[in-house]
Amino acid sequence: MVVGDFNQILSANEHFSVLPHPLPLTGMSEFSQCLMKNDLSDLPSRGAFYTWTNNQPDDPVLRKLDRVLVNDHWRDTFPEAIATYDSPGDSDHSPALVYTSAHIQKNKNSFKYFSLLSTHPRFKEIISAAWSEQTGVGSGLFTFAQKMKNVKASCKQLNREGFGNLQQRIKESLEQLESIQAEMMRTPTDSLFREEFVARQTWNFFAKALESFYREKSRVGWPRLWLHFLTRGSVGH
Q1: Residue 64: exposed, middle, or buried by beta-carbon count in 10 A (0-12, 13-18, 19+)?
Q2: How far is CA 154 from CA 35, 58, 76, 151, in A?
Q3: Most exposed residue of 1, 91, 163, 180, measured as fewest CB within 10 angstroms of its CB?
Q4: Domain ranges, ordered by start, for the chain
Q5: Per-residue model confidence as pLDDT tens digits over 50-103
Q6: Contacts for 181 with CB less than 8 Å, ≥ 6 apart
């Protein structure tokens, strides 16, 4: 299996532009011959057809530059394999994901701690209460894991209550951007290019606002916080 940005299209239908653009005919021919000689062809796919955009609203260009190529031996080994091309988001290329089974499951998002939480006036109170909760009987490592689980749940709740609005706006604006991009990458139109440009600007605005908010408001880092608790006995032993 060969995966990546090949910077080349195979046929004319893999290029879309509002203004006329010359096709790289020599490169297309050489790329096609290369795949034939190496017995490579596209893995069945879902999602976006075009995988690259130049992000130029005045002269938008879409092309299928990213591919997942396999040979017959790979197909025989993974007969149900499929590739999915997602919306590019803040990039100019669509990410390609390969599943060896046709049944695609979404992974759960991992927990991420943001130092922004430490600016909440009840942060220390809530973390201390979560750490002090009773846990099951077990080894020291087991007890520590249970306490950290309680802390994680409290952090999630605090994030929803204190900082949910801005993050929700970012999430919704990115979902809107990706939704427009998904349609644009399948059936591009002038209006969709304009909508994508506006949606990208909106997402960038909220993302930069949150970045600035984190930079200005974050005061206590996670390592410093735990050092403070451990040296003063605020959390416990």
Answers
A1: buried
A2: 54, 47, 48, 5
A3: 91
A4: 2-99, 115-232
A5: 999 998 888 999 999 999 999 999 999 999 999 999 888 878 999 999 998 766
A6: 48, 53, 87, 88, 89, 196
pLDDT < 50: residue spans in the chain: 219-223, 226-227, 230-231, 233-237
Angle (CA) 216 220 225, round 5°: 170
Residue type present at position 233 = G
Burial class (CB in 10 A: 0-12, 13-18, 19+), 126: middle
Model's pTM, two decimal places?
0.54
Residue with tokens 């790979």: 74
Pick from 160, 159, 134: nearest CA to 147? 134
* Gap between the Cα atoms of 182 and 107, Å rounded: 20
Q: Report H helices in the chain.
A: 25-37, 72-77, 123-132, 140-186, 190-217, 222-232
Task: Read off φ and ψ for residue 69, nearest 5 degrees.
Answer: -110, 140
The structure tokens 């690259």 sit at 52
Helix (H, G, I), strand (E, B), or coil: what is residue 142? Answer: helix
Contact, 64 vs 51, CB < 8 A?
yes
CA distance 53 to 172: 22
**Distance, CA of 83 to CA of 99 (rounded, Å):** 6
